TrEMBL record:
GO terms for molecular function: ABC-type transporter activity; ATP binding; ATP hydrolysis activity; molybdate ion transmembrane transporter activity. The keyword ATP-binding applies. It comes from Idiomarina abyssalis. Residues 1-232 form the ABC transporter domain. Transmembrane segments: none annotated. SUPFAM superfamilies: MOP-like (SSF50331), P-loop containing nucleoside triphosphate hydrolases (SSF52540). PROSITE patterns: ABC_TRANSPORTER_1 (PS00211), ABC_TRANSPORTER_2 (PS50893), MOP (PS51866). This is Molybdenum ABC transporter ATP-binding protein.
Amino acid sequence: MLTVNIEQQQGDFCLQLAHSFADDRVTAIFGPSGCGKSTLLRAIAGLTPGLKGSVRWRDALWHSRKPRMKTEQRGLALVFQQAHLFTTMSVESNLRYGMPKNVSDSELAIGFAEVVDMLSLRELLQRKPAQLSGGQQQRVAIGRALLSQPQLLLLDEPMNGLDATAKKQILTDLRRIQNRFRLPMLLVSHHVEEVVQLADDVVIMADGKLVSSGTLQTQVDSLAGHSEGPLSVLSVTPPNQSAGRVNATDELLAWQLAEQQLWLPVNAAVDVTGVSEAKTCAAGRLLVWARDVSIATGYLPNTSLTNQVVARIIDFEPAKHVAETVVVLTVGDQILRALVTNASVKRLNLQLQQQVYASFKAAAMH
Ligand SMILES: Nc1ncnc2c1ncn2[C@@H]1O[C@H](COP(=O)(O)OP(=O)(O)OP(=O)(O)O)[C@@H](O)[C@H]1O
């Protein structure tokens, strides 16, 4: 457990937060720009002068009135928005920089060879940072952090400014790393996609304060309230390899959502077990924005939409825009939200407990 009860004044801004973070999973710290996410991470790392209160990690008191434990004694590693690599050193030297000296790879909890392979860095070991893309630089920064053998990894928007492909690779790598090493992580992000793909727990902040916290599933509504609108997080079970791909060019795989079949682009769902071979993974996670879900009262035989699932209406919620309604649906035991116009609700005569078909484009999933 990481327990913080802190107050940090920075000019007009005041961070005031008391919370206990689980020490065996990924917690996302989510909130708008300027709400204090980075300040919180820096306070935990011992990088903010004038911090009041206490920070306790397991049995160790990292911060109290006095004495304050130095950052390098805390057994944590930080990855920032910029990779901050040593420009004159090779990738390999950067990676080895913080490693314990005179210890063989097999004696380390987090070994060099494994990290290099997990982060796909083998081909890059002899290059200099200037010869790497932004995503590759960040993977080296993550590798260097891991090889310092931390007990806790602090990630301050490590995917900021990267393109979608680089982001996706880092998210997948981080999930795999967490599963392999059971390394607790605090991830600062203001992107819902990153939170949904990586987090087990979510802490939502605003104006230097904690607004809500809990498991990802309990925080879906809060996330929606602080982002681009209503959303759902669906659990899907592994692709049915025997069903295979639709064809080589479609690159779609069959997944199961509450015993119904979904066709998703390869890698659309995040393998939350961290096992890359889809046939051996236990579950995947999908983010579906309510605006990407449409409802029909019957099965649509001639549609370009790939997925239609049978769902039941369990609620109507007001939407941000007065002309729209959030239709809350169940698919098996899972919740799916659809944002539709009030006019459509009326035209289709949608009713509570009615069975409908919910459609969403596979490409709308992350
Ligand atoms: N050294 C400083 N002196 C005074 N104010 C500061 C200092 N550093 C940050 N702040 C202020 O503290 C507040 C919190 O900043 P912080 O960087 O923690 O926010 P954030 O949630 O991480 O934002 P972002 O998502 O944009 O990175 C902001 O209002 C910022 O302007």
